[in-house]
Write a structure and sequence with these properties.
Blueprint lengths: L4 H11 E2 L3 E2 L9 E2 H11 L4 H13 L10 E2 L11 H4 L22 H11 L3 H25 L9 E2 L2 H4 L8 H4 L13 H4 L8 H16 L4 H7 L4 E2 L1 H20 L5 H20 L1 E2 L4 E2 L1 E3 L4 E3 L17 H15 L29 H13 L3 H18 L4 E2 L12 E2 L5 H10 L2
Antiparallel strand pairs: 1-2, 3-4, 5-6, 6-9, 7-8, 9-10, 11-12
Helix pairs in contact: 1-17, 2-3, 2-5, 2-17, 5-6, 5-12, 6-12, 12-13, 15-16, 16-17
Bound molecules: (2R)-2,3-dihydroxypropanoic acid.
Length: 434
């Protein structure tokens, strides 16, 4: 198939904003999203290193006083997105950054490993290392925030209080939690479904749950301890914590490259050891042969396998005996010949839906993580299959937000869904073809 390198660059440049950040997709997502910004920077680094650096420094300027980096930074005013800054009201929190209206929640901690990847890509290593030296403590403070304010049991695992913090917004695994809640039927105007077919997005009732969780956090002025005490959604997510552990590892590597050995690196090493132990104890399910989510509010594992189950391969987490079982689970469920890798939710489960956002479609950022994971584990064939499938999907359908895992579709208009000219699909395509 024909390479789409120039198109990928055009997508990123056309989504780049004068304020020094890149929107994920025009209309649908018109602000800066945290984990998007990280993946986008990796793509930008392949052809415009200054923009890659700016993407990260712009995001870090919006950091809260307590070290939190918000999931969306509302750099501009636009009414094409709901819920916007007037709904989230980050100014309710004493910790918020008054100069940058944002949400009061987080997204997966990607910045550590993103900075490490930027250093690998940069041709002028000295310049990039100097940039990293200016930013690294901010990322450290973000990790300190997670281990200080998001670890209720002080066990080394950070909780999330909202499905949007997981990144995997409407995954079927949250359904069990929605069943424990009965939020009001809010009156609101969805904006996402004016850009994308409602069949490919969460339902209105799901949005009631999403908004209700935000209302609870707002009621407590986004104070972490109060949210932890009262939120019906309180989850230890294997994707989130695996990326935190991976980013800890990257921070340590980068501090070492900068010749820094201090209390921060000591703390990072301590968090890391505790986190890896707790991860394997609490998030491993022997019955599923995979890592799963843990519902802290209801004190039980959530019995679902998703693409998040394989994120630990990307970090120094998986011991040899678990690696064998995890690989077997992946091969049995996710690598069927009639499917593109990797469905975002267990394709053999009845909750699987190949079109609806995080209930089944393939996402390029998850593929990038799992590709690097299998590579790290030495499973090169599986890693290459994931890489090739990602490239094939993009070359076939373009830079869509998510892709149908089924190779044979009844209808030729199907195959790729969600937003068009989606930035991280373009960015990680540029990285995967290297
Ligand atoms: C959305 O609006 O669907 C976003 O994913 C929230 O982060």
């Amino acid at each position: 198939m024909v390479r789409r390198v120039n198109e990928a660059k055009e997508v990123l440049l056309s989504n780049y904003q004068p304020g020094g950040f890149t929107i994920p997709s025009k209309g649908l997502y018109p602000f800066q999203w945290k984990w998007d910004a990280g993946f986008i920077a990796i793509g930008l680094a392949h052809f415009d290193i200054e923009k890659a650096k700016t993407e990260i420094s712009t995001l870090l300027k919006a950091q809260w006083k307590n070290g939190m980096i918000p999931h969306i930074v509302f750099h501009t005013d636009t009414d094409t997105y709901f819920p916007g800054k007037d709904f989230h009201q980050s100014n309710l929190s004493k910790q918020a950054n008054p100069d940058y209206p944002s949400t009061g929640m987080v997204q997966p901690p990607v910045l550590g490993f993103v900075l490490e990847r930027l250093l690998e890509i940069a041709t002028d290593k000295k310049d990039m290392l100097a940039f990293i030296g200016e930013q690294l403590d901010k990322v450290y403070y973000n990790h300190e925030y997670f281990y200080t304010h998001r670890d209720v049991n002080q066990e080394g695992l950070a909780y999330i209080y909202h499905n949007w913090e997981s990144g995997t917004d409407n995954s079927p695994m949250w359904d069990a939690i929605w069943e424990t809640m009965d939020p009001p039927h809010y009156k609101f105007e969805r904006r996402d479904t004016t850009h994308v077919d409602p069949e490919q997005r969460p339902t209105n009732r799901e949005y009631d749950h999403y908004l209700h969780l935000i209302e609870i956090a707002k009621k407590y002025h986004y104070e972490d301890a109060k949210i932890a005490a009262h939120s019906p959604f309180l989850v230890l997510d294997p994707l989130f914590n695996a990326l935190l552990i991976k980013s800890n590892e990257s921070l340590l590597a980068l501090y070492q490259k900068l010749g820094i050995d201090n209390q921060k690196t000591k703390n990072l090493k301590q968090w890391q050891e505790k986190a890896i132990n707790a991860f394997n104890k609490k998030l491993w399910s022997p019955t599923h042969g995979a890592y799963v989510h843990y519902d802290l509010r209801n004190q039980k594992q959530l019995p679902y396998i998703s693409s998040s189950s394989f994120a630990p391969l990307f970090a120094p987490i998986v011991p040899p005996e678990k690696l064998v079982a995890l690989n077997q689970t992946f091969q049995e469920k996710f690598s069927a010949a009639n499917l593109y890798c990797c469905a975002s939710f267990d394709p053999t489960h009845n909750g699987f839906n190949p079109k609806r956002y995080w209930r089944g479609p393939v996402w390029i950022n998850m593929n990038w993580i799992i590709y690097h994971g299998f590579k790290r584990a030495g499973a090169i064939q599986t890693a290459n299959r994931i890489k090739e499938d990602s490239i094939t999907l993009i070359e076939k359908y373009g830079f869509k937000e998510y892709f149908d895992p089924r190779k044979k579709l009844e209808n030729t208009t199907e195959g790729a869904y969600g937003g068009d000219n989606f930035s991280w699909s373009a960015a990680l395509y540029l990285d995967l073809i290297k």
